[in-house]
Amino acid sequence: MEFVIAGIFDNDPEKIGTKIKKLQIQDIKMLPAFVNKTGTDIGIITVPPAVAQQVTDLLIISGIKGILNLTATHIVSPGKVPVVDLKILNSLLELSCKILSNDKK
Questions:
Q1: To the nearest 10°, the Cα dihedral for 74, 7, 26, 59?
Q2: Which CATH architecture has domain 8-104?
Q3: Where are the domains of the chain?
Q4: Per-block average pLDDT, block size 10, for the chain (105 residues)?
């Protein structure tokens, strides 16, 4: 199985148009058309917690089939769109605590 990052989206006018390797950051308003045109199945959310649900809703309305949530908050989706939460911040904090406890031994 191959995973390809097909698009990057943001709502910050200063970031829109910036290139990251071969991809150009697009306006979030273009997301529904992009998903429809490309048939993208998975959306990855890396936004501030305050807007995570709003972005989730936009992805679902756009026709995404699954979401990887990298935010520090819980998001809700209908049963037909699975969400996997990857709590990077929590994992880093847990790892840091384990390192500190090992250092004290």
A1: -40
A2: 3-Layer(aba) Sandwich (3.40)
A3: 8-104
A4: 92 96 96 96 94 96 95 89 82 82 77
